[in-house]
Design a protein that fits this description.
The complex is a heterodimer. By secondary structure, chain A is of the alpha+beta class. Chain A has one helix spanning 13-24, and strands at residues 31-33, 48-52, 57-61, 91-92. The longest helix of chain A has 12 residues, at 13-24. By secondary structure, chain B is mainly beta. Chain B folds into 2 domains: 11-96, Elongation Factor Tu (Ef-tu), domain 3, CATH 2.40.30; 112-168, PRC-barrel domain (SH3 type barrels, Roll), CATH 2.30.30. In chain B, the strands form 2 sheets. In chain B, strands 1-2-5-4-3-6 form a 6-stranded antiparallel barrel. Chain B has a 6-stranded mixed beta sheet with strand order 11-10-9-8-13-12, with no helix packed on it. In chain B, strand 1 (11-21) and strand 2 form a beta hairpin. Chain B starts with 10 loop residues before the first strand and ends in a 9-residue tail after the last strand. Classes of the chains: A alpha+beta, B mainly beta. At the A-B interface, strand 3 and strand 4 of A face strand 1, strand 7, helix 3, strand 9 and strand 10 of B. Strand 4 (91-92) of chain A pairs antiparallel with strand 7 of chain B.
């Protein structure tokens, strides 16, 4: 069952306060959080959160398309696939 | 654990065989290339656990299903033969390997790049690239711990391929997390 519209999205108040403080001074720095269930709101766009995955903090850079999702969706807890160890065609780019 | 890529083998991996599907020798693969279309252009491939011990196969086709990407090799006609290839890689010769797209860099080439900040101060060495839901994370070894850096323009200023450098746009809080 989905969350009631009346309640609105769940946003961690401590995290929101930290982001609001950063937005006030127009500063960008990594914000550590354990609030994986916190919904990403438009104020979070452009910030980077270090989201705990139960083992370590995974940096999550927030952009517009991520609004409405939960922070935890972008910090996987199990699948953590690295390069295969043989020379491959796999490439990466700073998007 | 980090394994160094074998750069002198003459072969480049395009896919890894994960498991078998069905009785007709279908192989479910993990892509190590740009997409399934890339596999569609293959004709002859080498399959093996590493580039030094491979067997030649004729590539028959690729199809995308809801449960993954399936490939067929002409010489593999049943599940028993397919089972033997589980965990092995599909290779093409280096000469036939496709170059990375504009603005991209091969993961194997990126490993070993030195990471520096805007002041030119060395921060670590790229040791690993992790595939994440939205973008990749570059694992940078600082000498004492691994720091993950999102591969986004907000954090990565530029790549200097000649000097093998990754120049960070900002480092605020990145190395504390």
């Amino acid at each position: 069952m989905s969350r009631s519209i009346k309640k609105g999205p769940y946003v961690d108040t401590k995290l929101q306060a930290k982001v609001d403080a950063l937005n006030k001074v127009n500063q960008k720095k990594v914000v550590k959080t354990w609030a994986r269930d916190c919904t990403i709101i438009p104020e979070f766009v452009g910030h980077t959160f270090a989201v705990h995955n139960g083992n370590k903090f995974i940096p999550v850079y927030v952009h517009e398309a991520m609004v409405g999702h939960k922070l935890g969706e972008f910090a996987p807890t199990r699948i953590f696939r690295a390069h295969p160890g043989v020379r491959s065609e796999k490439s990466t780019s700073p998007a | 654990m980090t394994r160094e890529p074998n750069v002198s083998s003459g072969l480049t991996a395009v896919a890894k065989i994960l498991t078998t599907v069905g009785l007709k020798g279908d192989l479910k693969v993990e892509l190590l290339c740009s997409g399934p279309d890339r596999l569609d252009r293959l004709s002859a491939v080498a399959v093996g656990p590493d580039p030094a011990s491979t067997v030649a196969y004729r590539f028959q086709g690729v199809r995308v299903q809801t449960n993954g990407i399936m490939v067929r090799l002409a010489e593999i006609a049943d599940r028993t033969a397919a089972e033997r290839l589980r965990g092995q890689f599909i290779f093409v010769p280096d000469a036939e390997a496709e170059p990375p797209q504009e603005g991209s860099v091969r993961v194997d080439d990126l490993i070993g790049f030195t990471v520096v900040d805007q002041d030119g101060r060395e921060r670590g060495v790229v040791r690993e690239v992790y595939a994440m839901p939205v973008y990749d994370l570059w694992g940078v070894w600082t000498g004492s711990k691994e720091v993950l850096i999102p591969a986004v323009a907000a954090w990565i200023d530029r790549l200097d391929r000649e000097r093998r450098l990754v120049v960070l746009a900002s480092i605020e809080g990145l190395f504390d997390a």
